[in-house]
Amino acid sequence: MGVDQGSMQGTAAAPMTSATAGMDHGGMQMGDSNAPYDAQFIDSMIAHHQGAIDMANQALKEASKPELKALAQSIVTAQQSEIKQMQEWRKAWYPDLASTAGMGMDMGDMQISADTSKPFDQRFIEAMIAHHQGAIMMAKEAQQKAEHAEIKTLAGAIITAQEGEIAQMQQWRKAWFGQ
């Protein structure tokens, strides 16, 4: 299964309240060691992707650079599709399993800083780089620990897409903000 994050389409499914309830999105938290690893990964990555979608939607409204708005739209489209896929896998593979505590890993930034001493575009780039780094760490772990080949394939696609987006955002940060 090849995953082209740039052309994926879909819509966000059910609200993330059950997947995100009780999760610590910014720091370390113990995972649910009794739950299957793949279920923990799915629950964590759905919550993580929803955080990226929320930040990207904010960028669609507030970013001044058209390049950032295009990136934000790409993030929304790709990650909504991936959420839909993960929800389908979760339902098929673990229909009777309650929401887990997730993987217990640092997810990176889950919101854009409110520090208005920096332009919004700079704050978005900083938050999304940290956020993507969290996803890459989770995906690299999943490549080693996941039971289902589909999870490993998705993890590889996440790593490739988000490393590329980080490189692009780092270039923009240097060009636009001298950092």
What does this structure look like?
- By secondary structure, this protein is mostly helical.
- It is elongated.
- Helices cover 63% and strands 0% of the residues.
- The N terminus is likely disordered.
- It starts with 16 loop residues before the first helix and ends with a helix.
- Helix 4 runs antiparallel to helix 5.
- It is built from five helices and no strands.
- It has a domain of 124 residues: Ferritin.
- It comes from Kouleothrix aurantiaca.
- This is DUF305 domain-containing protein.
SS summary, helix count: 5
> Structural class, from helix and strand content?
mainly alpha
State which percent range the strand residues make up.
under 5%
CATH topology of the domain at 35-96 and 116-177: Ferritin
Rg calculated over all Cα atoms: 16 Å
- Euclidean distance between termini CA atoms: 37 Å
- Helical residues, percent: 55-70%
InterPro entries: DUF305_CopM-like (IPR005183), Ferritin-like (IPR012347)
Pfam families: DUF305 (PF03713)
Domain DUF305: 38-172
Protein name: DUF305 domain-containing protein
Summarize the structure.
By secondary structure, the protein is mainly α. Helix content is about 65%, strand content about 0%. InterPro entries: DUF305_CopM-like, Ferritin-like.
Walk me through the topology.
Blueprint (H helix, E strand, L loop, with lengths): L16 H4 L16 H26 L3 H28 L26 H26 L3 H29 L2
Helix pairs in contact: 2-3, 2-4, 4-5
Protein name: DUF305 domain-containing protein
Pfam families: DUF305
InterPro entries: DUF305_CopM-like, Ferritin-like
